Inverse folding.
């Protein structure tokens, strides 16, 4: 009798152990192995289900990697086509203050909206930010130029971020190993500060827009870090171009020696030292 009890307890413990293994397999994505009738049937059913679920996991992983690679290919093709269009087609001839000015004159009351949309699209098409900013300042002047340029830059930065996030994030994540994952996680935790710092040190605008989309940084951290980070540089550049524009229009070249022009030149020169100042402050911290 004692032997039968001990045998029964061993079977119970064995069955319990097997159910625990099944639960763990379910948590790990290996699926459920249920409807266990006896020990032999359990072994056969469990092995079959496990093999089936392992195959499904492999197929799902392969399919996921394929989709990620496909989207990354679309992103790369988009970048190549965009650069080709603005550099090697007749579109390049229309990227001048005169051509854009004619377009905005035709837009009339909606000229600011057209310019903001033009700027945003230009950012996504890899047009240099300095070119777009200079055009805005030359057409609208220092102050309104600054406002429209900032809005257009934010629109373009946001759109480029989402393009990068939608088409490239999955593929980038599949390439990140344990060594790089800690940096990706750090960017997620300190997204606002990271973006703000990179904007203040004049990290290339368009590549950063797409590149940040490939990281784990939260959109709103990126958005506000960008918005605050580009204010100083944008204002200095538009103020400088706008001041020179006023002198050019007036035809009074003596105004080149006015306080406003000297101040704009001083700000423009100072802007080149901002990255070094920011880096020095960070190193001292």
């Amino acid at each position: 009798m004692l032997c039968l009890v001990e045998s029964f307890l061993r079977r119970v413990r064995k069955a319990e152990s097997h159910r625990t293994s099944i639960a763990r397999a379910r948590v790990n994505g290996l699926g459920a192995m249920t409807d266990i009738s006896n020990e032999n049937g359990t072994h056969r059913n469990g092995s079959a289900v496990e093999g089936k679920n392992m195959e499904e996991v492999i197929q799902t992983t392969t399919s996921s990697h394929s989709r990620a690679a496909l989207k990354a290919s679309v992103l790369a093709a988009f970048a190549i086509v965009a650069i080709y269009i603005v550099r090697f087609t007749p579109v390049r001839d229309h990227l001048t203050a005169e051509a854009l000015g004619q377009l905005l004159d035709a837009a009339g009351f909606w000229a600011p909206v057209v310019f903001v949309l033009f700027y945003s699209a230009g950012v996504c098409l890899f047009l240099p930010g300095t070119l777009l900013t200079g055009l805005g300042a030359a057409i609208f002047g220092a102050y309104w130029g600054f406002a429209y340029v900032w809005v257009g830059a934010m629109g373009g930065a946001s759109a480029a971020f989402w393009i990068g996030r939608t088409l490239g994030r999955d593929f980038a994540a599949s390439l990140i190993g344990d060594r790089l994952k800690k940096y990706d996680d750090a960017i997620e935790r300190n997204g606002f500060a990271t973006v703000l710092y990179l904007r203040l040190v004049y990290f290339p605008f368009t590549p950063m827009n797409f590149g940040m989309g490939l990281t784990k940084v939260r959109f709103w951290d990126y958005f506000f870090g960008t918005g605050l980070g580009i204010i100083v540089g944008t204002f200095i550049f538009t103020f400088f171009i706008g001041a020179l524009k006023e002198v050019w229009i007036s035809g009074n070249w003596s105004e080149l020696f006015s306080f406003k022009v000297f101040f704009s030149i001083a700000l423009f020169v100072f802007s080149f030292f901002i990255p070094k100042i920011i880096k020095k402050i960070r190193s001292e911290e």
Notes: The CA atoms of residues 14 and 39 lie 9 Å apart.
